[in-house]
Amino acid sequence: MEAKRKPRILIGSIGLDGHELGALIVSRALRDAGMEVVYAGLNLTAEDVVQTAIQEDVDMIGISSMSGIHVEALSDLIKLLKERGGERVPVIAGGIIPPEDMPALKDLGVKGIFPSGSTTSSIVEFVERELSGKSSPGTP
Amino acid sequence: MIAGKDSSNREEDRFITKSGIPLKSVYTLEDIEQIPYESEIGRPGQFPYTRGPYANMYRSVPWMKRQPMGFGSSELTAERWSALHKKGGQAGYTGDPAITLLFDMPTNYGYDSDNPKSKYQVGTVGLPVDHVEDMIQLMKGFPMDRGFSNMVIHGSPPIVLAMYIAAAEELGYAAKALKGSGKNDPFQSFLAERIQLLPIEAELKLCMDVLEHCTEHMPQWNPISLSGFSYQPAGLNSIKALGLTLATAIGYIEAGLGRGLVPDQFAPRMSFFLSGGVDFLEEVAKFRAARRLWAKIMKERFRAENPRSMLFRVYCLTLTTDYTAQQPLVNLVRGTIQGLAAVLGGVQALGIPCYDEALGIPTEEAQTLSIRTQQVIAEESGVINTVDPLGGSYCIEWLTSKIEDEVNQFIEKIEGMGHDGTVLSGLIAGTNSGAILTEIDDGALTRQRDVETGKTTMIGLNKYREEETVFPHVFRFDRKYVDKKIQDLKEFKKKRDISLRNRALDELRKVTESNENVMPALIRCAKARVTLEEAMNVFRDFYGKKSDLGKGA
């Protein structure tokens, strides 16, 4: 019998932005928790993310946004995912996201939102729950 | 959420500075009597300048009050600048206008606003500059010969500076009258901003072109502003950030020597840009140590004779990673402590990030509060009535010397990474191998872990949490300005004289290929209405792209 595959998450940042820290920190925490991280890095387009996600057959996509572009970028990403048949891949977002933007992101279908001050442990817990089938939509 | 919990009860672990220096219960004369007073402490305005670069400091000349800013478009940025200047901010030493400009990501990455890669990012975290007319529009209300402009540009400093110079000349100012400073710090762009457009050797060459050009043609301009301020948010503690900043300064001087420049010619115009954290004692001591370190580096390592080469002149932007998104008004308190430490540390210019920093770019109201914080320190607190008032404190003098030692060790470590005993080769090796980046990233991971375990207290976040009741208005500007920018750019490209633009680009290509100083050609390009991206592509094509972790930018 095939061993159960470790959860695989793509972590990346859309648009030109050198602020990498959040993505690095979350990637490390997810790896330490035993998950596989496909670190797609910085300066990605929505197209890059979707292509990599499909190629690598990821279970979840995590997008870091540090320059206020979260609504636009995630809207493009989720639309493109749908077009390519990837709508079942849950998307989470983190970074500089003010409370007033969270409803818009939830409406887009972002499953988890992790603004400034979120702990890596809460992110890890969320991802584990979400991918074990007991999903917990929305902001933890 | 874990409430703040001491991870140990040992005194050495509890009473430590943010950079990890344990402090004793009390310091006495015994702790500092080994420090030779005249040669190490002395008086302000005298080598080694521990107590201040100038004898009278703020009694004669206040620090510049410069809040970094930039967003949307030249018009919007100029408007906000003007509003803040009217409130007493954005002012230089004599009340003359001063500005610290931040540019948007496409500009920092060398792309025009209409490039598909620039999607989402035009004008979001800084000002978009595509060509000289953007600069003219920005600066036309600003007295470029009296005012002071600090441009924080990553990735494309020579091109943006050339546009600034060209804009000044078209507005009727001589280049030699221009006052200001430009971040021109390729190591920092690589290591802190993660913006790597060209191989480091190419970026160094361009950095030196700017240095050489300004040394000869722009005597009032600081061509290299060592921008160590973002090493701290990136992960280094205050002491290591200072160490890396001074190491890169040494590296650039070594590179200048390699160009045949004499340190006394250009070192007086090297300036610094550092973070100011909330650990009050450490920050005061850090700035004092920085001055002493720099004076000794210039005198002993580079045999400088011009006293002005030995002055560590610094713009402090207080530290955003000390701030929280939770209970954001508390950031006003943090900003005050940070600002006060910087002033007691003797900085030449100060900016205090706004309390809404964790939510987005600041509102005018938040910027105003930051300016008022500076004004209260300057005009109500009385700390400016005498120079270096904490000088002579047993703790502060001990800590100043301690930080000096730690920084020297850090510089030696960088030196050791190289192959020829120069700090420059150590920096290049450490950058190319990823060793320095790893140290920075490890620092960030440690910092995050310390916050999550409560080892580092952050009130509102991991201690004294409560349900949020204050929701600052998040600043947004009308996206129509961005649409207009992109539209204007399209028309601009059509309207300009294409043969003039082509000739200018050909010239730029020629001087790049023959390894000459590119600045005169870049200035001519700016005047010929070459765009930022078009100029940058000449460098990209010639030097090759440097790809970063994600994707080549």
Description:
The complex is a heterodimer of chains A (140) and B (553). Chain A has 140 residues and is an alpha/beta fold. Chain A has helices at 21-32, 46-55, 70-83, 102-108, 120-131; strands at residues 8-14, 36-44, 60-65, 91-95, 112-115. Helix content of chain A is 39%, strand content 22%. In chain A, helix 3 (70-83) links the parallel strand 3 and strand 4. The longest helix of chain A has 14 residues, at 70-83. Among the domains of chain B are: 11-65 and 184-453, Alpha-Beta Barrel (TIM Barrel), CATH 3.20.20; 490-543, no CATH class. Chain B contains 22 helices and nine strands. In chain B, helix 13 packs parallel to helix 14, helix 13 packs across helix 16 and helix 14 (330-345) packs across helix 15 (364-379). The radius of gyration of chain B is 23 Å and the shape is globular. The two termini of chain B are 38 Å apart. Chains A and B meet through strand 1, helix 1 and strand 2 of A and helix 5 and helix 18 of B.
Q: For the record, give the distance between the C-alpha atoms at the N and C termini of chain B, rounded to a whole number.
A: 38 Å
How is the main sheet of chain A built? Answer: 5 strands, parallel
Fraction of helical residues of chain A:
25-40%
Lateral strand order in the biggest sheet of chain B: 1-9-8-7-6-5-4-3-2
Task: Give me the CATH architecture of the domain at 11-65 and 184-453 in chain B, please.
Answer: Alpha-Beta Barrel
Distance between the termini of chain A: 35 Å
Indicate the radius of gyration of chain B in whole angstroms.
Answer: 23 Å
Q: Give me the CATH superfamily of chain A.
A: Cobalamin-binding domain
CATH-wise, what's the superfamily of the domain at 11-65 and 184-453 in chain B? Methylmalonyl-CoA mutase
CATH topology call of the domain at 11-65 and 184-453 in chain B: TIM Barrel
CATH topology of chain A, by name, is Rossmann fold
| Total beta strand runs of chain A | 5
* SS strand fraction of chain A: 15-25%
Secondary structure category of chain B: alpha/beta
What kind of sheet is the major sheet of chain B? Answer: 9 strands, parallel
